[in-house]
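Notes on consecutive records. When two proteins share a document, each keeps its own sequence and its own token line. Never mix them. Below: protein one.
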Amino acid sequence: MRLKIEDVRKIAHLARLQIDDSDVEQYATDLSNILALFEQMNLVDTAGIAPMAHPMDATQRLRRDQVTEHDQRDKFQSIAPDVKHGLYRVPRVID
């Protein structure tokens, strides 16, 4: 599918993008190439192929769940401008 310059301008308007007139033709070419790739990919027979979440059949390495820092809440709250019942109080920003 070959996009026309008018199509690119309409897409840019709908997406609220400002494109220089000198760049519109390049955008039309690039977007047309992307759509051609999608058309080519749609021709591939994928019957019987299970969808996968990731192209690499990898598992995530997990680390041991252990404490790496000490509790410094009292230290941090001692220098905070406003604390009540162990919680930081901040000015209201939304009524």
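Protein two starts on the next line and is unrelated to protein one.
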Amino acid sequence: MKKKILSLLLAGTMIVSLTACGGGSSSDTEAANESAQESVTAEDGAADAGTDAAVPVELTVTTTFAGEDGNAQNFKDAVAAWEAETGNTVADTSATSDETFKTRVVTDFETGSEPDVLFFFNGADANSFIEAGKVVSIDEIRAEYPEYAANMNDDLIADSLVDGKKYAVPVNGYWEAMFVNMEVLDAAGVALPGADYTMDQFKADCEKIKAAGYAPIAAALGNIPHYWWEFAIFNNQSPADHLEIPASASDANGQAWVAGMNDIKELYELGYFPENTLSATDDETFAMFTEGKAAFLIDGSWKVGGIVSACQSDPEDPATLDTEKLSHFEVTYVPSKGGERKATDLVGGLSMGYYITKKAWDDPDKRAAAVSFVEYMTSDELVPVFAQHTASALKAAPEVDESQFNELQVKAMNMMAGVTSLTGAVQDLFQGDCRVPTFDGMPEIVTGKVDAADAVAEGLDIYNNQ
């Protein structure tokens, strides 16, 4: 059976948090990349005529496709194929994405050590080098190479927060949804939640799960409250206003934030989180979920790979996958409160993309090679290899053989087919110390030591006075 990879995103989707950088694990990578290598050639128009450099050059390329990123090997294979096709070479300086990586990239631009091509975030993290004129906009590139990124839906390419122009050509996106351990639900006599799932139904199911001796929700509120923070607020808003940061805790949007914090407090008071939710780490509560001790987990598309790894006797060897164990995991929608946000309205977006730096663009030997490289990496044939079960901005995603994916990835594709909207994460606009009162302070909020309204007000005051 074949199915098109979903390209469902909203225009103006905002940036993803640092936690949204992980990639899903791939299946049959070699076969997928062989197909991509055969399809993406100069003759079939994958690259604009004349984009290959006349003389072989070496491009310095920096991405986040490194370490445990599920697309690290896909990137290596694609680079090797492009090198073989063009005669050019790549100096790969990729590294796993974290705050250190972000700082390194920004510092490289400040010191003139930036790469020729960069795969990086397209939100606030890119502001400094865009303001400095260190990267080239897609429109400027198209003035010389009209077909550059022509296979992409421009409405789904993020605008820069600096000047509203588009710079980064996206590859794969992300989504945040609810994973389910069906072994726990079956033991508690609870059915798999569907597309119209409400918080009232969710709480009724949690009560049954709790009575059966399991933790309903796998979450470490004292460590990583991020996903519940995001969706609890979203449940009191709509996709249209979720990305508007309140002016104060007393305005309509501020009250939605307060209501969201109190909703989490209610779930805590009902005993639906693990007993050690305030002291446990996120890794510990995730282990509870994969080991059949907790039922529900709200997390991102990158967690598909983590669940799959947890179902392998050797986490590093896909050949050791226990398919029977994996079959017990599902992915579905996050329950709504029955307001403007529907359960099928999820948090997600296209948070990263390929930039061509001014340094490479102004080098007559590297300009064509840089364009060729990005066109190759963002071609119709190669994007699905990276996007897998997430999302892309392709105008026409090619059909993908589902036999190349594991069962949970296929379930994720099916879930995404029912998504009605994707909205960016507001927490990524609300960064730094302003998040401390409600992120780090979540234990005090849920235990009643700090009033939710006071915590929200404190965070907003910090944000508005930065």
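For the record: The chain has a mean pLDDT of 87.
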